[in-house]
Amino acid sequence: MEAIKSEKFTLKQILQQNWCAFLDVYHLLVPWYAAYNVWKVISCREPDGLGYSTFACPTHPSEIRHVPRTCKSRFCSICAKIQIDKWVTDMNQLFPNCSYFHITFTVPEQFRTLLFEKRSLLNAVFSASTETIILFCKERGFLPAITAVLHTFGSDLKRHIHIHCIVSTGGLKLTGKAERLTRFVKRKKKNQKAKKKKVSVVEDNPSWVECHFFPYKMLQKRYQTLLLEHLKKAIENNINSSEPDQDLIVFSDPAVMKSFFDDLKHEYQNGFFVHVTEERQDLQLTAAYIGRYARRPPLSELRIKDYTGEYVTFEFKDYRYNESKVLYTLKTIEFIRKLIRHIPPHYFNVIRHYGLMASRVKSKYKKITDILLATPPTVKKTKSWRERQTTFKGKDPLLCKICQRVMIFVSSHLPNPLKSIRASFQTAFP
Predict the structure, then answer these.
(1) 165 and 243 share one domain
(2) What digits encode the pLDDT tens for the residues 382-429?
(3) pLDDT tens digits for 312-329?
(4) I need a surface site. Which of 60, 217, 246, 292 has the fewest CB within 10 A?
(5) Dihedral sign for Cα atoms in the order 319, 321, 324, 326
(6) Domain that holds residue 56
(7) CA distances from 206 to 142, 310, 319, 372, 413 (A)
């Protein structure tokens, strides 16, 4: 089939032309939040979809400007680009002014289907990976700043669940050093009532403790222990709940639970894979690298090399062959299926903050780290819609052509209120 002529192939274009055909095949497999996000992308900047806001000149009311409303979905390439720029700016302002490590935690292949189908279990991956880092740091007497980001995909859109962590090279001094996890485990076996030693950040005379080394071999073993522990606990809690997941009932048999998890211990004797980068100085570059996958679609539109209507061809790096670039062609319906399965559930946080960055303490600790490490360098704020349009078109879109006064907001046209649209999708889809 002849390729559709376009300067750039967009996800919105592909979804608009194929979404109905896709639903004819996969309607029963599409969760409501995925369908809702796709609808927002298709309706983004469409007057009959999300509507528009009207601005008018206060002196010349006949001079008006209709500004289309955007979806603000992370699955929309344009809206998500704006969100990631803002997030990277915020990260540079909130993170302590120090160097950092980029640490990646990967789950074994045997867990991918289980975690992908039972998304609530992904919380266990967050807990295990961040706890691995925090316990190591506490054993050395400091609390670090951590931002963790969940990715559920590889560059070829396959299932590949892993956690990226940005970790400060050091942290605020604690009142003491925590007990090593291995020692606590042994003590716990002897006394089930045994509790961990509590330590807290020294606030009356704070100091910054440097740490320029994370032993990945030790982290791998510890991460394995904690991930298996958290997954077992999450599954047991589900089974014992008032509405257990029928697919997880099989784990109610202790023999099944033991066999499944113990086999992994034998297969991965060195622990689950953990990668620690060299110490880095440029937080903005790494934050942009991590965030562009968390707040943007799994596939950049720049990687879409051809679209014929029936087939989509995109480019990806094959890490099995020295990151060589490979072209991958899929039927459009299959491409959409692989793409939308990575849309996270509604209100599921794929970006989480721990340690000094935790929501309940970050403001307090930020004041301390700014004194000890100096305030982070100023980063340019993300441009507003008006500023972006002025830069792109070379003129202010909200200036009256007659008197050059700034137009003011007068009304909104909302043909499809999001609340009612969301409710309709919750009814129509699983």
Answers:
(1) yes
(2) 888 899 899 988 999 999 999 999 999 999 999 999 999 999 999 999
(3) 999 998 877 777 889 999
(4) 246
(5) negative
(6) 31-73
(7) 11, 62, 44, 8, 54
